[in-house]
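Per reviewer request, we include the raw input and output of the structure prediction for the construct analysed in the revised manuscript.
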Amino acid sequence: MSVTVELPEELLAALRAEAERRGVTVEALITEAVSEHVGGQPRRRFALAGIGESGGTRFARDADELLAEGFGRD
């Protein structure tokens, strides 16, 4: 099935740039977007984002200080 859609030039330019970045056609990108928003397919998300976050206040930049305080010596 074919559908013609009129888009603002800015949006069309953004679609073309994103399609080129991904190495896909504009048509494929539009099909993906419509499928995600209307077709009920959930958007892909990074399931591992935030895993391992300690919530601590010490960072790698504090390594020398931590070692000087005896961190890791048992």
